[in-house]
């Protein structure tokens, strides 16, 4: 028995550790460091219909136990991802979750339809929560009706299960979660980044050229944990949790509040081996806690 | 190969105002192949400060498995680094990026090395390798003020060295480009590292020379995965953008849009 | 000339450093350590009409560069505060900002009316953003209409200017800010805490007995800075900024994005002398930045 | 007077599994007046970990300006503290709270001191002061297992000492209250520090004895300002609640609702 195995719509995961979208490119770089087949799955960088050149630099700034980023969804565009990035990843035994972004419903639908047909894409992650682009992204993620409609439109064309990625920058996250569930989402991924700003100490202007950026890293973990805790009580679809995961203990925490798997973002920059290290540490964590298998941990906060 | 290693502090000393020289030892040194590459350093095991810091490799000693960095301890991370004592460990990711191509110049030719502030360090290993190959070097090193000057002696021992300070307190007063216009040194290839305006001025001063420039940008991953450090390219360049961490930090002149 | 002087509705501050409500009690404890007259003002602990015994313990938990609290507005009640706490503070040359809390409009109004008549209370801080009580508090702070109405009701009875304390747990903070401005607020204080949760690593249950708590400390500073930056563009009343202030640089940051003064909360627990230390460091900071007086720094991010 | 001081590490040693003994020196020691008071410690200058940690004063040496703490290095903060070496500094706020009243017992009388785990340390200074006053002491110290036992020798040198371990690997097996029922020691006043269930069991075992209990709670400020550490009181008590940090951590029996 594989104690770390987790089954989710479209995803049979040998372990619940997934590099988060935007923090792992399309895998090539980390493949220099370790075998990507060790991973539960990979969430690839947001893909849009057209090539995007993203925001001006500086695009990142450090904050207390966290960082801000405003990459602006830079990516080589759907065609290139289909022709090069996804085929390159086929040599690894790892399911791909394709992060889909756009400006309006039509682009989302076009990307979703095409990318869901790639053989190694086992699920989509609908990015309705990117705080770093002027249109599209977060505006779908802060209004229940838009979120639900977009989910339904994408579901209608996708060949694989659709997970919707929620923004934490809302008054009532359960409302959005219920809306995307009603729209037909197969799962939820959460949280995307909190909107933040850091100033240059001398000039008093934002360090990030875009002004604001998305806050991630250990600093946001308490916010993510409470949101997953709340949403898992309000929906019946599975959750992939993220926000500040850096250790096996953090993974246990997300599963405890009801996530079925976790994504690791910022921590990859701090320790590029963090994903395989966590995977290796999990069985001992289970022993310490007295659980046979990881799925026994899921939702224990609620019991 | 990129490695992550907890390397040991061999030596740490202050060599100018706010400027420290730190020598580390470990296996990772064996993979340092090119001057101008950098390492990505984690200065604490806690989560604050969180991110790694990119620092150039200033000199390499393969026999002793040692390398040296020179850095300014002004911000939070570098100040913490400057407190490390011999025997303590530092978490290093590296070697990273593409450095200065020594193969782009022939023995007997002359290289102009232009450094500004904390852009000076990687030029030292470069100069040593150029000399090992039989290349003459001219060093032009710019600093704010005499208190900030470092490695004058080390560079002088290798070849001709000119110091420029913004306030004129040591060497020539002004910018490195002022000195270059005055002295008009003869050379075949230039190599430079320093603030972006200095790199731009150099490209303009020598429109017809072969040259290589090392760039800086705020980084996340340091290995090409996060798209934090991209720079735009000129029309003459095929790719639309380049990543400073993995495609650079050194690029041939004319590639990066300045 | 006092380089640190700031003038705000009802408040003539010798410097802009104010211990934040709930982090400084009613001053007695920190008075053992230094002269409270050094402070710009003091925001006293939330006062309610009746005595409140607060939430069960544990009430605090540490997080990465932050902490959670769920004190639950424990306080000795209006009568006691008027009879003992405020008179005790009269011996110091420091204006008091009274933090007013309640369950419904009537309690808020009753507390505001009475406490605004105390001689050393120079302003009220209307707490419509406490995330740690079951009713009242945050529910006023997440709905523009309720926030505006409550502000107007309190303004009608208060003898001193009214500042309204905003919650960051909203989709659109400018909307709430504009609503309280329209309701007659003289100023805004922001931010209160973000809702978060931390689990006990062994049991998987929340450490804080209340379940969730309010996140504060350096971790939240980027969120606070971006919200003050945004709100200061959208209202014409002054802002007292807070969220993670621990150094003179942090104060400069909040002023840069448009705050006119700052409150210091969690940092008092880390360094009990943080307020006087910051006040002492500010003139040199001004020299370094080349400003004559602190008010010159206000809003420089926007210029 | 409460002070904040960067105190110097004099000595640090591991004395049992995960248990460290740390001696610090500084002026703050002069204000330590009562056994059972505590200090609030910041283990790093960065913001992670952020909060101070409350630790009891285990022994005081006014002449040498030194005091000793004994702590379990299991969590993040205490593990960082356990890496501090002689000469390094630790940021200490203290002395804090109200400790064990030595004046509540007369010379010639007998005190029962009951400690559990990391509740044992403050009883050591208490025992020393009681002996200095001519009070006999009986020490009953409970631990998980023999690997966790510490200070058996130190307490034995002062007076009768019984060790109890949960697994029976040293001394008597079980809880301290099991041993107390068996041995039924004669005494006048009891003093105790340890897990809350132990304190509750003690109150029940000795319904008619005078006693003083030291409590624990998670803290913010440590000085009474933040209301993090309140405990409810019994009907017999006038105040509705008490703060463990500033009203306690030691209270007479019967005051805190258990
Ligand atoms: C390829 C490369 C090589 C470098 N080589 C050297 C060197 O040899 N010696 C040296 O002193 N400096 C060098 N730098 C600059 C060095 O990275 C920064 O001085 C350092 O990151 C500042 O960290 P801090 O914690 O002291 O400052 P802080 O201001 O506290 O840093 C906050 C954040 O901003 C980032 N940051 C701040 N300044 C810079 C900068 N100039 N470039 C990139 N990131 C920055 C930090 O990495 C950190 O994430 C190099 C930068 C790059 C990109
Ligand atoms: C008055 C008092 C005296 C104490 N005396 C001692 C002593 O002499 N020796 C000793 O080993 N321990 C003592 N403790 C317990 C000690 O405070 C905790 O073991 C310590 O805070 C754990 O910190 P950590 O960083 O290692 O653990 P972490 O789990 O990383 O701590 C996380 C947070 O929880 C708090 N916390 C965790 N456990 C406790 C606890 N049991 N009590 C209070 N806060 C806690 C920490 O202070 C910190 O804020 C005392 C506690 C109190 C209240
Ligand atoms: C540099 C960077 C780039 C990101 N890019 C994307 C992206 O393209 N699409 C997306 O859905 N989320 C993106 N995110 C958000 C992360 O996937 C993740 O939701 C968030 O960072 C919280 O997790 P963490 O704290 O582990 O980083 C990005 C985050 C970072 C730090
Ligand atoms: C322990 C604690 C108690 C608090 N109690 C109150 C309160 O009674 N009323 C209130 O308006 N805010 C209260 N707050 C919020 C603070 O006033 C402040 O808005 C918040 O902590 C952000 O600032 P900081 O990061 O500097 O702590 C409390 C915060 C803490 C940490
Ligand atoms: S720093 Fe991540 S791509 Fe260069
Ligand atoms: S810890 Fe703040 S009141 Fe006790």
UniProtKB/TrEMBL annotation, chains A, C:
Its localization reads: Cytoplasm
Molecular functions (GO terms): dihydroorotate dehydrogenase (NAD+) activity
Catalytic activity, per the record?
A: (S)-dihydroorotate + NAD(+) = orotate + NADH + H(+); (S)-dihydroorotate + A = orotate + AH2
- Domain Dihydroorotate dehydrogenase catalytic, chain residue ranges per copy: 4-286
Q: Which InterPro entries match?
A: Aldolase_TIM (IPR013785), DHO_dehydrogenase (IPR050074), DHOD_1B (IPR033888), Dihydroorotate_DH_1 (IPR024920), Dihydroorotate_DH_1_2 (IPR012135), Dihydroorotate_DH_cat (IPR005720), Dihydroorotate_DH_CS (IPR001295), Dihydroorotate_DH_I (IPR049622)
Q: How is the cofactor bound?
A: Binds 1 FMN per subunit.
Tell me the route in metabolism or biology where this protein functions: Pyrimidine metabolism; UMP biosynthesis via de novo pathway; orotate from (S)-dihydroorotate (NAD(+) route): step 1/1
> Is Magnesium one of the keywords UniProt gives this record?
no
Q: Which key words are in the record?
A: Cytoplasm, Flavoprotein, FMN, NAD, Oxidoreductase, Pyrimidine biosynthesis
Binding-site list for substrate: 45, 69-73, 127, 192-193
Mainly resides where? Answer: cytoplasm
Q: Does the keyword NAD apply?
A: yes
Top EC class for this record: oxidoreductase
Q: Which cofactor does it need?
A: FMN
Q: Which Pfam families match?
A: DHO_dh
What is this enzyme's EC? Answer: 1.3.-.-
Its biological purpose: Catalyzes the conversion of dihydroorotate to orotate with NAD(+) as electron acceptor.
Q: Which family does it belong to?
A: Belongs to the dihydroorotate dehydrogenase family. Type 1 subfamily.
**Assembly and binders:** Heterotetramer of 2 PyrK and 2 PyrD type B subunits.
Name assigned to this protein: Dihydroorotate dehydrogenase
Give the organism, scientific name: Viridibacillus arvi
Taxonomic path: Bacteria, Bacillati, Bacillota, Bacilli, Bacillales
Supply the gene name: pyrD
Automatic annotation (TrEMBL), chains B, D:
Instruction: List the pathway annotation.
Output: Pyrimidine metabolism; UMP biosynthesis via de novo pathway; orotate from (S)-dihydroorotate (NAD(+) route): step 1/1
Tell me which Gene3D superfamilies the record gives. Dihydroorotate dehydrogenase, electron transfer subunit, Nucleotide-binding domain of ferredoxin-NADP reductase (FNR) module, Translation factors
Q: How is the cofactor bound?
A: Binds 1 FAD per subunit. Binds 1 [2Fe-2S] cluster per subunit.
According to the UniProt entry, its GO molecular function terms are: 2 iron, 2 sulfur cluster binding; electron transfer activity; flavin adenine dinucleotide binding; metal ion binding; oxidoreductase activity
SUPFAM superfamilies listed in its UniProt record:
Ferredoxin reductase-like, C-terminal NADP-linked domain, Riboflavin synthase domain-like
UniProt cross-references to InterPro entries, sorted A to Z: Cyt_c3_hydrogenase_gsu, Dihydroorotate_DH_ele_sf, Dihydroorotate_DH_Fe-S-bd, Dihydroorotate_DHASE_ETsu, FAD-bd_FR_type, FNR_nucleotide-bd, OxRdtase_FAD/NAD-bd, PyrK_electron_transfer
Enumerate the CDD domains for this protein: DHOD_e_trans
| Chain sites annotated for binding [2Fe-2S] cluster | 221, 226, 229, 245
Cofactor(s) the protein needs: FAD; [2Fe-2S] cluster
Keywords assigned by UniProt?
2Fe-2S, Electron transport, FAD, Flavoprotein, Iron, Iron-sulfur, Metal-binding, Pyrimidine biosynthesis, Transport
Q: Write down a Pfam family by its short name.
A: DHODB_Fe-S_bind
In this chain the FAD-binding FR-type domain maps to: 2-102
Residues the entry annotates as binding FAD? 53-56, 70-72
Q: Name one GO biological process term.
A: 'de novo' UMP biosynthetic process
In terms of NCBIfam families, this protein maps to: PRK00054.1-2, PRK00054.1-4
Write down the HAMAP family for this protein, in alphabetical order.
DHODB_Fe_S_bind
How is this protein organized at the quaternary level?
Heterotetramer of 2 PyrK and 2 PyrD type B subunits.
Give the record's family classification: Belongs to the PyrK family.
Functional description taken from the UniProt entry: Responsible for channeling the electrons from the oxidation of dihydroorotate from the FMN redox center in the PyrD type B subunit to the ultimate electron acceptor NAD(+).
Q: What is this protein called?
A: Dihydroorotate dehydrogenase B (NAD(+)), electron transfer subunit
Species of origin:
Viridibacillus arvi
Q: What is the lineage of its organism?
A: Bacteria, Bacillati, Bacillota, Bacilli, Bacillales
Q: Which gene encodes it?
A: pyrK
């Amino acid at each position: 028995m594989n104690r770390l195995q987790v089954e989710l719509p479209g995803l049979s995961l040998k372990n619940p550790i997934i590099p988060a979208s935007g923090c792992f490119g399309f895998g090539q770089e980390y493949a220099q460091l370790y075998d990507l087949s060790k991973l539960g799955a990979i969430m690839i960088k947001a893909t849009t219909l057209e090539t995007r050149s993203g925001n001006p630099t500086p695009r990142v700034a450090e904050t207390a136990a966290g960082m801000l980023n405003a990459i602006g969804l830079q990516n080589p565009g759907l065609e290139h991802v289909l022709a090069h990035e996804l085929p390159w990843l086929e040599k690894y035994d790892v399911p791909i979750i394709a992060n889909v972004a756009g400006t309006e419903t039509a682009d989302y639908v076009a990307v979703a339809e095409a990318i869901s047909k790639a053989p190694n894409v086992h699920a989509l992650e609908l990015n309705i929560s990117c705080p770093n682009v002027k249109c599209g992204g977060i505006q779908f993620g802060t209004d229940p009706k838009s979120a639900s409609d977009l989910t339904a439109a994408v579901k209608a064309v996708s060949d694989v299960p659709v997970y919707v990625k929620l923004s934490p920058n809302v008054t009532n996250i359960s409302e959005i979660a219920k809306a995307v569930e009603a729209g037909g989402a197969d799962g939820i991924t959460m949280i995307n980044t909190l909107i933040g700003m850091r100033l240059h100490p001398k000039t008093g202007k934002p360090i990030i050229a875009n002004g604001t950026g998305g806050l991630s890293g250990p600093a946001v973990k308490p916010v993510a944990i409470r949101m997953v805790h709340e949403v898992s009580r309000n929906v019946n679809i599975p959750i992939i949790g993220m926000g500040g995961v850096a250790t096996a203990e953090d993974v246990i925490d997300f599963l405890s509040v009801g996530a079925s798997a976790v994504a690791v973002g910022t921590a990859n920059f701090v320790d590029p081996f963090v994903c395989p290290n966590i995977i290796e540490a999990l069985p001992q964590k289970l022993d310490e806690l007295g659980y046979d298998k990881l799925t026994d941990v899921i939702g224990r906060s609620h019991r | 190969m990129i490695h992550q290693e907890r390397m040991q502090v061999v030596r740490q000393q202050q060599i100018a105002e706010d400027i420290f020289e730190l020598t580390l030892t470990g296996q990772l040194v064996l993979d340092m192949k090119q001057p101008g590459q950098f390492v990505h350093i984690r200065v604490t095991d806690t989560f604050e400060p969180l991110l790694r810091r990119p620092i150039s490799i200033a000199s390499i000693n393969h026999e002793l498995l040692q390398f040296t960095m020179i850095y300014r301890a002004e911000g939070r991370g570098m100040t913490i680094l400057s407190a490390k004592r011999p025997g303590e460990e530092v978490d290093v990711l590296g070697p990273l990026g593409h450095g200065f191509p020594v193969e782009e110049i022939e023995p007997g030719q002359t290289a102009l090395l232009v450094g500004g502030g904390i852009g000076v360090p990687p030029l030292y290993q470069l100069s040593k390798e150029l000399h090992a190959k039989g290349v003459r070097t001219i060093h032009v090193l710019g600093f704010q003020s005499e208190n900030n000057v470092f490695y004058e002696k080390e560079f002088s021992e290798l070849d001709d060295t000119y110091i420029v300070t913004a306030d004129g307190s040591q060497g020539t007063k002004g910018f490195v480009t002022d000195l270059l216009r005055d002295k008009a040194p003869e050379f075949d290839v230039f190599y430079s590292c320093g603030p972006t305006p200095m790199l731009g001025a150099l490209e303009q001063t020598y429109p017809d020379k072969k040259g290589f420039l090392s760039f800086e940008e705020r980084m996340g991953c340091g290995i090409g995965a996060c798209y934090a450090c991209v720079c735009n390219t000129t029309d003459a360049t095929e790719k639309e953008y380049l990543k400073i961490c993995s495609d650079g930090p050194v690029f041939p002149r004319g590639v990066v849009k300045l």
